[in-house]
Amino acid sequence: THQWRGIIEEYRDRLPVTDTTPVVTLREGGTPLVPAQVLSERTGCEVHLKVEGANPTGSFKDRGMTMAITRAKEEGAQAVICASTGNTSASAAAYAVRAGMVCAVLVPQGKIALGKMGQALVHGAKILQVDGNFDDCLTLARGLSENYPVALVNSVNPVRIEGQKTAAFEIVDMLGDAPDIHVLPVGNAGNITAYWKGYGEYAADGLSTHRPRMWGFQASGSAPLVRGEVVKDPSTIATAIRIGNPASWDFAIAARDESGGFIDEVTDREILRAYRLLAAQEGVFVEPASAASVAGLLKAAEQGKVDPGQRIVCTVTGNGLKDPDWAVAGAPQPVTVPVDAAAAAERLGLA
Ligand code: F0G
C-alpha cells in the first residue's frame, strides 16, 4: 500500500504541475542511496552511491522524462523528439508509450550501446541514426521541433531539469542534510544543473543547512568544460557522455563556481577501473559513463583533494545492463563442465 508514487506525486508542490495536469509516470525516482564501503575506506570519507540505474528504464533520465512527457501531454502534443546518446531515447520511448504519443529519436550512428537501442526499438520509437555526433543530433532535433509539430524533450527543455532536481531532494531527505560534496558524470550538463537547482531550493527553504560542492567529471576525449572550448570530434568508450558542446554549458560552470567545486576529466582507463571496482567490490553494476563519477572521486583522492571525514554522494547514472560489452570484454570465458558434481566441484576449487 505504500509504493513510491513517482517523482511528480512525491514532490508535487515543488514541480510545475497543477491539479489537472495529466501525470505520465512509471513511478520513477525513489532510488537506493547505497553506502559504499570500499570507497569510504579508500577516501576516509562517508561515501554513498545514488543508484539511478534502478529507475524504470535504467537511468536518471526518467526523472526528467516523466515531467517532459507529462507537460507535452498537457499541451496537447501528439509527438515528441529527442537527440540522444541512448538513455534519453530509451526513456522518451517508454514514457511516450504511456502517453500514447509518437516518439522520434536521433542518435549518433554506431555510437549507442546495444541495450539502449533495444529499448528504443521495443518501445516502438521511430529511430534515425544520424551520420554525425550527439551535438549534430541535438542541432537537428531542435530545428525539427521549431518547424514541425513535434515537442523537444531534451534537457534544453526546462521541465526536464525540474524533474531531475528531485534526485537532490531524495538525498537530503535520506541523509537529513546535504552532503559536503556531490560527484557526478557530465555530458550535456543537464544533470549537474538539475542537482544544483534541487540543492539550492532545499537550502533556501531551510530543509538543509548548506549546499554541497559540486564535482563534475567528463571523459578526457570529450571534455569541453575542462578545456574551455568546444570539442569538435569527441571520443570516449563512455558513449553516454560522448558530447563536445554541452547544451547546459553556462549552468554547469555556474554550479561549479557557486558551489566552490570543480569540473575535471578522467581517462577511459580510469573510467573502466572504477567500473570494475564498483561491480567487483561494491556490488553495483553501472554503465561506463556512470563510473566517471567514481573514477573522478578516486582521482581527486589520489591528488590529495579529498579531506577525510566528509560526507560524499556519487551519482551513478545508468544501469550496467545497458552496455554489457565492457563487462564481458577481457573477462575469462566460463569453462564448460559435464553434468557431474565431482567435475564441477573440481573446477570450482571446492574439491
Ligand atoms: N550518465 C549517463 C548514463 C547518461 O546517459 C548521461 C547523458 C550522462 C551521464 C550525462 O548527463 O548529459 O545531464 O550531463 N546522457 C544523454 C542521453 C546525453 O542522450 O542519454 P548530462
TrEMBL record:
**Could you tell me which Gene3D superfamilies the record lists for this protein?**
3.40.50.1100
Cofactors (names): pyridoxal 5'-phosphate
The UniProt record lists the keyword Repeat: no
What are the record keywords, sorted? Amino-acid biosynthesis, Lyase, Pyridoxal phosphate, Threonine biosynthesis
Q: So, what pathway does this thing act in?
A: Amino-acid biosynthesis; L-threonine biosynthesis; L-threonine from L-aspartate: step 5/5
Extract the GO molecular function terms from the UniProt entry: threonine synthase activity
The family classification in the record reads: Belongs to the threonine synthase family.
> Which PANTHER family does the record cross-reference, listed alphabetically?
L-THREONINE DEHYDRATASE CATABOLIC TDCB, THREONINE DEHYDRATASE, MITOCHONDRIAL-RELATED
Q: Which NCBIfam families match?
A: thrC (TIGR00260)
Protein name as catalogued? Threonine synthase
Per the UniProt record, the source organism is Streptomyces lateritius
